[in-house]
Each structure stands twice: as C-alpha cells, then as structure tokens.
Design a protein that fits this description.
Blueprint: H1 3-15, H2 18-25, H3 29-43, E1 48-49, E2 55-56, H4 58-64
Antiparallel strand pairs: 1-2
Helix pairs in contact: 1-2, 1-3, 2-3
C-alpha cells in the first residue's frame, strides 16, 4: 500500500470531504480522487462513503485504525 494513499484516506476522514482533504494535503481534488480509487482498487473494496460528510466505510475504518 502506498503511504500517500493512506494519508489521503485519513485526510478525507478528518476533513469530511474530498475538497477538504485536497486543501489539507495541498493537492488537487482530482489527485485525492485518483489516490482513493487506486487504494480501493488495491484492496478490492470501497473505502469511502461519498456522502456529505464523506466517511470511511467499515473496510475503510479498518485501514484508518
């Protein structure tokens, strides 16, 4: 697993949105989305519930812990 992908997951959970994570990490919202898609692809599960606010799914919570 790529450490920057995990950092991005944590930022989304902390900030509650992809936009907030992008600001916290100083990267584009597109980069946040690409990182999460890559992480989800690597683990084979959806990790973020794309709601307002965004939050980790049960599988995402395992990685957050």
């Amino acid at each position: 697993m790529n450490p920057s992908h995990l950092e991005t997951l944590l930022a989304i959970v902390d900030e509650g949105s992809f936009e907030g994570a992008s600001l916290a990490l100083s990267i584009s919202p597109s980069a946040v989305s690409q990182r999460i898609k890559a992480l989800e692809h690597s683990v084979g599960r959806v990790l973020v519930s794309r709601t307002q606010p965004a939050k980790a799914t049960d599988a995402g919570e395992v990685l957050v812990q």
